[in-house]
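Materials and Methods. Structural model of MarR family transcriptional regulator. The 99-residue sequence of MarR family transcriptional regulator from Lactococcus garvieae was retrieved and submitted for structure prediction as follows.
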Amino acid sequence: METGYLLMNISKKLKYTLNQALVKKGVTVQQWAVMQQLSIRDKYTATELARILDMDKPIISGILKRLEMKCVLIKNKNPSDQRSSILSLTKTGQILLNE
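The predicted structure was written out as tokens:
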């Protein structure tokens, strides 16, 4: 039981520290997670990102809209399914992630 408490406490402190660093960049922890995933493998769909990051579709949709407004990611029509978009980091997004 004590180990679980310690792990939870460490997790909270790490998340707080990460959040403080990301606030300076103008992104949230969830936005950063999306950007990280897009840097690992470019060209995801929103559905793929939601599954990989274990986020609900409405949550990922809001995150993607905010990142697109910040010019951090770009959406292009999916050639194999016109109903979905392919998401990629922009140069701005890559620079922000590497700061």
